[in-house]
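// run 5 | inverse folding | seed 20
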């Protein structure tokens, strides 16, 4: 969780002169997704800042990869891949939809 909190302090230009700062919503939503994923039994997770101010939360379960990108417009993009095959790609989703998907992907 500490890694994602650092994103809140990133200023415009954080990545070699490019990179937009993260919004409070993006950081908060990312923390909520991480917390919910932990509660649902996920133990392998990571977070990444995006150049356009987005926050990306990734969950891993063996060959499965789950990606939740909190976009700068406060919508979410949700991706599920197994190996190199993309099984799901949803744009313009809500935080509640992300919680539903985390629960559905849950290994608990």
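// decoded
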């Amino acid at each position: 969780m500490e890694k994602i909190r650092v994103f809140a302090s990133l200023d415009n230009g954080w990545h070699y002169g490019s990179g937009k700062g993260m919004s409070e919503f993006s950081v908060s939503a990312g923390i909520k997704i991480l917390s919910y994923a932990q509660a649902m039994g996920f133990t392998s997770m990571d977070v990444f800042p995006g150049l356009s101010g987005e926050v990306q939360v990734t969950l891993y379960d063996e060959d499965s990869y789950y990606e939740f990108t909190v976009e700068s417009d406060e919508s979410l993009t949700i991706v599920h891949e197994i190996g190199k095959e993309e099984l799901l790609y949803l744009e313009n989703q809500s935080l509640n939809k992300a919680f539903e998907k985390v629960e559905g992907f849950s290994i608990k």
